[in-house]
């Protein structure tokens, strides 16, 4: 283990916070103690090279030749956590721990690195090499960035000095001057009392937007209250008479709704006036549809927000949240957007199969279309998916793909460039599940065959796809 003698221990505060959390070698602890006692002496060994500092190998302190660290918090640590982790681990988010200070990240460097190298974090997302989408550069750690962070950890997380490194800006979640913010009539305190979902609660709130006429949504974004409790938000539109019984009278405290039908949506029938608007999770950001396009919201529609609350431990029990969703409208658009569920229901996932894939296709399509984005959706056994377009004998075009699907991180991917689908092409999909006993999300012991259904212990295979004809 290496410890930085210069830069990372500028004052007694670092020494007080860091040692109890790091498993410090005895010799290192001694070095820390002496450095805090003799700051001037420690500081005087500073080298003047750009971003470098002298370190001593504490494991063999007697014969240690000083080695040069080439990394620093400012160049290797902070930009990494700001880029990939801050949307959830920024103190206010749902992620465990606050990764905004040098002290915290330095103390947690090993578990942070382990979560990244194992692929657990950041949570699974569509591969931007398949098709690039908004904020993709924040959802997939590049090899270069992972290596740079790992090097900083290997060098003992030296703090170093800022050298004018560019700040990684936070992801913009809000939209400016919205026309409408939908929120429950009152703040709600999740109880996390469902024994089947420890630490999680899926709550639906129906809201009457009170629009004066039919509108088109042109941009939207969440209005977050207790961000640490929000794992994801799904917004639906639904004609008032079709609201599920529990939501009929727009109860301020909402209703329990992990299933889509319970939330008020018929997943196979989104063209009938009822349909999804968006699935949002930290890092998705606010979204603007391309110029001249928009999603319909009728004056007779209610909006349902399904909020997945998560007990991150950052808020005391009983904390109330009043999160909503903001929209900007146009009265008319050239190209109305539609949301189509690409997927089918006639699958049966064999008990015990750790990697069962089901695929199908739609087409040849009678018309051409443009695909603007998609939200892949399976339940808890889902592990991977692929959506692609094939036109004749041409190689197929990847639309969305992941080998690391997570039920807890469902996101709408808004593509940087729409996918042009010519008439005659077909749209192919694949879903992959792990129905083995080893899957930590497994409901059944022993596993049983699982088929299509609304319940979380049944499965789905849809990509809710935003398109225009
Ligand atoms: C989209 C939100 C999100 C992002 C982005 C995210 N995390 Fe997490 N992270 C969570 C949540 C939520 C938890 C709590 C446990 C869970 O749900 O898996 C968590 C838990 C963790 C844990 C503790 C549990 C474990 O698996 O080790 C570590 C460490 C961690 N995250 C590291 C990171 C790092 C490092 C990054 C950035 C490279 C990152 N996370 C990005 C949401 C996120």
Going by CATH, what is the homologous superfamily of the largest domain?
Copper type II, ascorbate-dependent monooxygenase, N-terminal domain
When the domains are counted, the total is: 3
CATH-level-2 architecture of the largest domain:
Sandwich
Write down the overall geometry.
globular
Give the quaternary arrangement of the chains. single chain
Helix content: 10-25%
Number of helices: 9
Mean pLDDT: 85
CATH topology of the largest domain: Jelly Rolls
What ions, cofactors and ligands are bound? heme C
Structure explained in plain terms:
The protein is built from 9 helices and 23 strands. The chain has 469 residues and is of the alpha+beta class. It folds into 3 domains: 153 residues, no CATH class; 154 residues, Copper type II, ascorbate-dependent monooxygenase, N-terminal domain (Jelly Rolls), CATH 2.60.120.310; 131 residues, Jelly Rolls (Sandwich), CATH 2.60.120. Strands 4, 6, 10, 11, 13, 14, 17, 20 and 23 form a 9-stranded mixed β-sheet that branches. A hairpin with a 6-residue loop joins β18 and β19. The N terminus is likely disordered. Bound molecules: heme C (HEC). Heme C binds next to α5 and α7.
Topology:
Blueprint: E1 2-4, H1 12-21, H2 26-37, H3 39-43, E2 53-57, E3 67-69, H4 73-84, H5 86-89, H6 102-107, H7 109-117, H8 143-154, E4 180-183, E5 200-207, E6 215-223, E7 230-239, E8 255-256, H9 260-263, E9 275-280, E10 287-288, E11 293-297, E12 301-310, E13 324-330, E14 335-343, E15 348-349, E16 356-362, E17 369-377, E18 382-390, E19 397-402, E20 413-421, E21 426-433, E22 450-451, E23 462-468
Parallel strand pairs: 11-14
Antiparallel strand pairs: 1-2, 2-3, 4-13, 5-8, 5-12, 6-10, 6-11, 6-13, 7-9, 7-12, 14-23, 15-22, 16-21, 17-20, 17-23, 18-19, 18-21
Helix pairs in contact: 4-8, 7-8
Bound molecules: heme C (HEC).
């Amino acid at each position: 283990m290496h410890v930085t003698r210069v830069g990372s221990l500028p004052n007694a505060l670092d020494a007080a916070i860091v040692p109890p959390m790091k498993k410090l070698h005895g010799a290192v602890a001694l070095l820390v103690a002496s450095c805090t006692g003799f700051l001037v002496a420690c500081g005087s060994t500073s080298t003047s090279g750009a971003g470098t500092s002298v370190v001593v190998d504490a494991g063999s302190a007697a014969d240690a030749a000083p080695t040069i660290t080439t990394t620093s918090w400012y160049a290797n640590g902070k930009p990494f956590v700001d880029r990939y982790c801050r949307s959830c681990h920024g103190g206010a988010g749902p992620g465990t721990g606050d990764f905004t200070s040098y002290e915290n990240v330095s103390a947690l460097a090993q578990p942070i690195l382990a979560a990244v190298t194992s692929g657990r974090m950041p949570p699974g997302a569509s591969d931007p090499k398949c098709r690039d989408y908004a904020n993709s550069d924040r959802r997939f750690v590049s090899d270069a960035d992972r290596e740079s962070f790992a090097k900083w950890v290997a060098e003992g997380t030296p703090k170093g000095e800022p050298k004018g490194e560019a700040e990684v800006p936070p992801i913009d979640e809000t939209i400016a001057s919205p026309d409408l913010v939908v929120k429950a009539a009152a703040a709600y305190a999740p109880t996390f009392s469902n024994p089947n979902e420890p630490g999680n609660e899926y709550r639906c709130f129906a809201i009457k937007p009170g629009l004066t006429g039919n509108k088109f949504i042109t941009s939207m974004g969440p209005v977050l209250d207790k961000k640490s409790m929000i794992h994801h938000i799904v917004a639906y539109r639904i004609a008032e008479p079709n609201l599920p019984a529990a939501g009929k009278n727009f109860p301020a405290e909402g209703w329990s709704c992990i299933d889509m039908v319970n939330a008020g949506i018929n997943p196979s029938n989104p063209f009938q006036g009822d349909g999804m608007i968006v699935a949002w999770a930290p890092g998705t950001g606010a979204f603007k549809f391309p110029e001249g396009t928009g999603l319909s919201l009728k004056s007779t529609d209610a909006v349902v927000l399904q909020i997945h609350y998560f007990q991150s431990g950052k808020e005391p029990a009983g904390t109330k949240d009043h999160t909503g969703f903001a929209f900007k409208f146009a009265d008319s658009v050239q190209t109305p957007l539609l949301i189509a569920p690409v997927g089918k229901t006639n699958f049966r996932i064999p008990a015990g199969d750790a990697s069962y894939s089901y695929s199908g296709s739609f087409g040849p399509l009678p018309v051409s279309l443009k695909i603007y984005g998609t939200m892949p959706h399976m339940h808890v056994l889902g592990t991977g998916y692929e959506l692609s377009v094939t036109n004749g004998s041409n190689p197929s075009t990847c639309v969305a793909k992941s080998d690391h699907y997570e039920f807890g991180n469902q996101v709408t991917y808004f593509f940087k460039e729409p996918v042009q689908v010519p008439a005659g092409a077909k749209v192919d999909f694949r879903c992959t599940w792990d129905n083995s006993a080893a899957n930590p999300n497994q409901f059944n012991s022993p596993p049983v065959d699982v088929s299509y259904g609304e319940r979380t212990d049944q499965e789905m295979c849809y990509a809710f796809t935003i398109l225009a004809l």
